[in-house]
Design brief:
Blueprint: H1 5-13, E1 23-24, H2 35-47, H3 57-77, E2 84-87, H4 90-102, E3 110-114, H5 123-132, E4 135-139, H6 149-155, E5 160-166, H7 178-187, E6 191-195, H8 207-210, E7 214-217, E8 228-232, H9 234-239, H10 264-280, H11 282-299, E9 304-307, E10 318-323, H12 328-336, E11 340-341, E12 343-345, H13 350-355, E13 363-367, H14 374-385
Parallel strand pairs: 1-11, 3-4, 3-5, 5-6, 6-7
Antiparallel strand pairs: 2-8, 7-8, 9-10, 10-13, 12-13
Helix pairs in contact: 2-10, 3-10, 4-5, 11-14
Amino acid sequence: MATAAHDMEAVRARFPALSSGVAFLDGPGGTQCPQSVIDAIAGYLRESNANLGGAFAASRRSDALVALAHETAARFLGCRAEETAFGPNMTTLNFALTRALGRTLAAGDQILVTRLDHDGNVAPWLELAHDRDLTVDFVDFREDTSLDLDDLARKLSQRTRVVAFPLASNALGTMPDAARIVALAHEAGALAWADAVHFAPHGPIDVEALGVDVLLCSPYKFFGPHLGLAYGREELLRSWRPYKVRPAADEPVGHRFETGTLAHELLAGFVAAVDYIDELGWEAIRAHERALGRHFLERLPESCTLYGLPTMDGRTPTFAFRVAGVTPGDVAQRLAERDIAVWAGDYYAVEAMTRLGLQPGGAVRAGFVHYNTFDEVDRLLEGLAVA
């Protein structure tokens, strides 16, 4: 188990960056990479760096890597390889997929998003609405930051075409009831469009069990390189006309949405990242993270105001808070001077921060992943006590 001290030492030894002495409590903004991911990226560039479709050995190895990356993505997401697509990042992929869907929409159609969403699952819909004369409505959250499913039910209509939502809030850690959201969307004849970027390092994803139609995530949030990854239900992907160059392959169907040459070396890193997670196991990851979160919540100084659920039920170990009398930016700077990495601002969760009355300035955000330790959490708590 990751909670055992000797196991934690072994886990942390696999991440070169952790030897610096910095407490990387900035996981929601991007995680560190194990050595196996770094080696996989370097190994590809050293031995197989070539474009696809050639007769020579390096090109054939690149062909095999691209196929392996899609198979690995399918294993990670619980779908088939042809239903996966890679891109530079989640936001770029989401703009591409929403534009393709937009060709099927008509003026007056409605898109529902939530105030828990990262803007990567809001702005593409707002831009599409601008171009296609659509309506975008926001589903609110309750005072405890749980999503207001009654508000969702009220706002669904015969014109609702998409319900876009996060599996977990990147700002507050809140995990909405995905099964209920998907059920409500499908009952209304709408697509369920999930942002799994923040959730992905904290638990397994199974798109079939979730019932979502589209799901996007970012490997750099789960110990891999900077990439975007998307799942789309095959029937749905085949129903859209993609934006792509004419010679690009139409099969497998997910490839239609991969514009240009992929970053092959990063795909090698992605495969290594998923292999690392598989080796460690979600049970150990979740148990350790939950314990870290409880430790933090039970000891948070009285000078701090938490925005989000007060227990580890229904949330990831990501916490937004303010320290009385100190701006979020100043708190983050003071902690950085103590070699503690956290974030300050709105983290692109514009609607959540506005809804909570935290603009301008946002909040301080600390987030834990499985390689963090209780000592690091205590360092954070000590730093907050004197911030």
